[in-house]
Write a structure and sequence with these properties.
Largest sheet: 4 strands, mixed
Strand order of the largest sheet: 3-2-1-4
CATH topology of the largest domain: Endonuclease III, domain 1
Number of domains: 4
Distance between the termini: 43 Å
Number of helices: 20
Order of helices and strands: EEEHEHHEHHEHHHHHHHHHHHHHHH
Radius of gyration: 23 Å
Helix content: 40-55%
Structural class: alpha/beta
Length: 395
């Protein structure tokens, strides 16, 4: 019988796994393509391990890991790791890596130098590539000498590494700048929901069915970076888009801070195409960068002082950016309270579900009913998206 046990647990990046034995945690598994794949990977790593409820110490470790992945300050140094069978050099690399603070990065060469083994950067990279304790031993904080991401062996590759660094960097002021105060919202969600219930009883029934308003804002270091990401994501499945965007970011130093206009203009077409960008998206990113350098893209401070329509007009001038893209930025990045994307399929589908329509409503029909939802049409849109999701799931 195997001396190991394992369990799966939920985090902000998906369902992770943990394996343990008598001497402590012997493995952390980042999410695979699905829960079944994550469980199968753990069982390949620890054949015969039984799935069980974690003991108290492992529960504490799991809670700390989950907190870190939510972007909270969380100290993982007290977590006991079972390094039985880990080669001595690898053990030293892992112990050194555990001293790198969240939000910081160092190079493979720096790790080698701190171990008193200059010239062994490649060996450091090999050790981190075999790291069995992901997150607890934060190999994602070790990058190439030029500040670029380097490799990452977990599912998702550099996209996962970029996401982990972005989560940790999100606690820094540069990342928090997009959303300040009021939990990131510039309005009272309770007051918004009560207004919608009173203004539209049918929408109120949907609200009661779905539950509390829980808009998840997406953080970004700058308006430029948010727009660049939006361009990359257009018309792509989320996972494919995340991989391509991570490859684009990996072309620059400190990739988790996102691309900059100067960086986009400096890198070659071949490098950007090699990251997976289509010719159309490459042209859009170049246009965005040129306009940003010319001062045509507002700063965050300027954007805060502009109306929704003024932002739509200004940003829609960029090649490849239309009204819908700007509306998504207004909702999910800037938390504007009164945005109704009438051309959005999810909003129209949710409208049909909520108001018992046989077919999709026209944008004009959504716009007409939406007048009663002012000044909280963003909240109404969020509930319509939830209605569309539930209808799809029920099928």
């Amino acid at each position: 019988m195997s001396p190991f046990a394992f369990a799966l647990f939920d985090t902000a990046i998906g369902r992770c796994g943990v394996a343990w034995g008598e001497r402590g945690i012997c493995g952390i598994q980042l999410p695979e393509a699905g829960e079944r794949a994550t469980r199968a990977r753990l069982l390949r790593r620890f054949p015969g391990a039984r799935e069980a409820a974690p003991p108290a110490k492992v529960c504490e470790a799991v809670a700390s890991i989950a907190a870190l992945l939510r972007g909270e300050a969380s100290d993982l140094s007290p977590i006991a790791l079972d390094m039985e069978g880990v080669p001595d050099f690898h053990r030293r690399v892992y112990e050194m890596a555990r001293t790198i603070p969240a939000g910081a990065t160092i190079s493979y060469g720096d790790v080698a130098a701190r171990l008193g083994a200059p010239g062994s950067a490649r060996a450091v990279g090999q050790a981190l590539g075999r790291n069995p304790f992901a997150i607890v031993v934060p190999c994602h904080r070790v990058v190439a000498a030029d500040g670029k991401l380097g490799g990452f062996s977990a599912n998702g590759g550099v996209a996962t590494k970029l996401r982990l660094l972005g989560i940790e960097d999100g606690r820094r002021s540069a990342q928090l700048a997009l959303f300040e105060g009021d939990g990131g919202l510039g309005f009272d969600p309770g007051a918004a929901v009560e207004h919608l219930r009173g203004a539209d009883p049918a929408l109120g029934r949907l609200i009661d069915s779905v539950g509390p308003f829980a808009l998840q804002l997406k953080r970004a270091p700058s308006l430029f970076a948010a727009l660049a990401e939006a361009i990359v994501y257009q018309q792509l499945h989320g996972r494919a888009a995340a991989t391509i965007f991570a490859r684009v970011c990996a072309l620059f130093p400190r990739p988790h801070e996102g691309p900059t206009a100067e960086g986009i203009l400096r890198v070659s077409d071949g490098a950007l195409r090699g990251a997976g960008l289509s010719r159309a998206k490459l042209a859009s990113l170049r246009d965005l960068a040129r306009r940003a350098r010319a001062g045509e893209i507002p700063s965050l401070a300027e954007a805060r002082g502009m109306s929704d329509e003024a932002l739509v007009e200004r940003l829609s001038a960029v090649r490849g950016i239309g009204r819908w893209t700007v509306e998504m930025l207004l909702v999910f990045r800037l938390a504007r309270p009164d945005v109704l994307p009438v051309d959005d399929y999810g909003v129209r589908k949710g409208f049909a579900v909520a108001f018992r329509k046989r077919g999709l409503p026209t944008p004009a029909q959504v716009e007409a009913r939406g007048k009663r939802w002012r000044p909280y049409r963003t909240v109404a849109s969020w509930y319509l998206w939830r209605a569309a999701e539930r209808a799809t799931a029920s099928k």
